[in-house]
Amino acid sequence: MSDEANDNGPSADARNDDPADGWFPESVAASYDDPGGAANAPEVVTPAVDVLEDLADGGPVLEFAVGTGRIAAPLATRGVPVSGIELSEAMAARIGSKPGGDAVALTMGDMTSTRVDGAGEFSLVYLVFNTISNVTTQDGQVDVFGNAAAHLRPGGLFLIEVGVPDLRRLPPGQDTVPFTVAPDGHRGGYVGFDQYDVVTQEFSSNHVTVSPDGKGRFYRIPFRYAWPAEMDLMARIAGMRLKHRWAGWDRSEFTADSTTHVSVWEKV
Ligand SMILES: C[S@@+](CC[C@H](N)C(=O)[O-])C[C@H]1O[C@@H](n2cnc3c(N)ncnc32)[C@H](O)[C@@H]1O
Prior knowledge:
single chain; alpha/beta; Rossmann fold; N-terminal domain of TfIIb; seven-stranded mixed beta sheet; four-stranded antiparallel beta sheet; 11 strands; binds S-adenosylmethionine
């Protein structure tokens, strides 16, 4: 599962990064919204915002791990009341500079446990761009589902967008799946690969960059994968049941060959 959401490693001087910002400190946040980044393209953002606006049913809504407001800010411009929880000050500092960003009610904290004003009244909680995988233990992921349910009103919805674990690409005895191999001769090169531990369900995304002068950088980010069915069980523990499972924001059918899913659970 190439983790595009986390592929942008430190691009600037990392010496001033605050460790409290986790894997998204200033040196990552600085380029997160760079023009040309696929995740910020209107053809990616708009379909997501369309679905979220529809499911919000007027709101209010809460984004877990709101980041720089890539999704929350455009959703707020549509008149939906949006709150967000975020761990990284460096990421959150960018929300206000976006159209609609000033309207996003931000709470700094960990989405496994942080409660925001209005808990119990939200119509929709959402967690997109593979970010459930940034929580690297099963207990932590169960807590995310529990915290989402605690913020929802009865009948409210919890939505997750995440890749399907790429384990079908692992032959017996192999634990590594390359997702980009881009040798570029005299201008350096890049290799990206995921490495899986199928016992713990931990995996890592690994980025090896060689610059034109031959210097290398190895950047490794830890994750945990969960099958859609495991997430259904986490939802059930939290008092929710599956309402939709789509292959993407176009609401297409989820099949055995789907590489991502957008899943929606309803608080019973
Ligand atoms: C890939 S970015 C996604 C940001 C935003 N949701 C988007 O779609 O662009 C992941 C974000 O999750 C945040 N994050 C990771 N773990 C978190 C946690 N346990 N609680 C709150 N935020 C977290 C990171 O700081 C980062 O901003």
